[in-house]
Structure formats: C-alpha cells, structure tokens
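Researcher: Please predict.
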Amino acid sequence: MAATIWKGFISFGLISIPIRLSSAARYSHIQFHEVHRTCGHRIQQQLYCPYHKRVVQRDEIALGYEAADGKMVIVDPKELRDLEPPSSTAMDILQFVKLSEVDPIYFETSYFSVPEEAGRRAYTLLLETMKESSLAAISKITIHRRERTVIIRPYLEGLILHTIYYPNEIREVAGYGRNAAKNLKKTEISLSEQFAKALIEPFRPDKFHDEYQARVRKLIDGKSKGRATPKPEKAKRLAPVVDLMSALKKSLADKETTKALKSIKDGSSRKTA
C-alpha cells in the first residue's frame, strides 16, 4: 500500500474536503550498494566532525545555513515548523485554468489524492465540476518543507495533483531556441511530415521498457549463476546528415517496407490461428 505523504484539506469556497496524498509514480531502477571489494560486505559511512576530530552521533546533528560572510547559522527544526504556512494542512483553490495553457515543462511530481469518508460527496462534486468544465485547479501546498504551487486535475475518476516548478526554477541554456536554420525547403518539410505521419500510433505506455535495466538484470542473474558476462551491444555510429532530402526519402522508404513486412507477418499469423 502506498504511503501517505500529506494529510489535509482541499478548500473550494466554503467547502473543505479532507484528503490524503500518495506518490503517483516512482522511478524504478536496480539498487546497488557500496561494498568492500575484498569481502563483499556493505560499508558504513560515518559522520565525522573535522573540528573536534571525532565521529558524531545522529542526535548531535543540527541544521546549518552558511551565510555570505562564511558564518554558520544554526536553525532548530522546531523553528522551521513554526514558520509553516496554512498550506501545510490546507490547499485553497486559488483559480481554475485550462490545462492546455500550462506548458509541460512546469510539471514536477505527481500525487494521487484520496478522500476521507466524510469528504467523498464533496470530492466527487469537485471532480465532476472540473470534468464537465474541462478545467484544472491551481492551489498551494507545503510539503517536505517547501511551499509548492500545484495543479489539480481529473484523472481516472479521481483528482491527481502535480507540483509545478516556479518560473525562476526553469533554467536558461545559452543558444537554445536561437540556432534554427533559415533555409529549409518546402519539399524537405513535406517529406519530413510524411515520415512523421508514418510513425503515428496510439500511445500505449506498456510498449516501452527500460532496456538498460533489463540488461543489468541479466548481467546480475548471470553472474549470480556463474555464467559469462554478456558481450556489450555495439552502439550505432551516427554522423550529421548533409543531404536532408536523400536521408528523408530513404527513411520513408525503409518505414514503408517495414510496415509492409509487418502487415504480411500479421496476415500469416491470423491464417495460422
């Protein structure tokens, strides 16, 4: 069962909806440990104070902020808790927006919201209102000692929350968006559009997998059973395309050939069945 990471209320005018939040997604990967190569046992990292030249215990640790003059300002966790805004327990809906107006670059982390028993009718009312109006709500929440702006939207018969980055958190990269070519030909654009259309398929997330993690798992399983290490796959060597027209024509021809072969294969499979 997913852990609850926040409990509080969604406030919609004078309506308060008690909810709890759980992480909607989690990055999945094979977890390695740092071990002593000689014996294979996990190593332990100690907390060391270079001033007192000794290992310190967890209960001796405090929070410190290094000021501009190099002085360390010590802050007690209770002092931080006293500063928490109302959004640490309640999310007031500030406004509604069209979701299409929010660029995906602002999205950060997703959370499922589950209503408490007493708030189910009000939760459903808000959900149906947003579905009928094709709207998303903007609110604020304090979580993990940070006040974040969130977008609340309908998703699979429930309300999902996405924390979003603030504008000052979106980075600027020198040269990005300023190096577009000015001499593209209409025929090149037309061929590129044809190739793009040939690749259009319904979005099915279950089709996509982390091939690298699968190879790592195979490596671990093989080593645990004393099998030889699999040979690494050779990466394709790619070079900048000089003749766009020739490359596009060949790409389109290859795609059409692949599609034709797949159609023949599928037809044969149906006859066999």
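Model: The radius of gyration is 27 Å.
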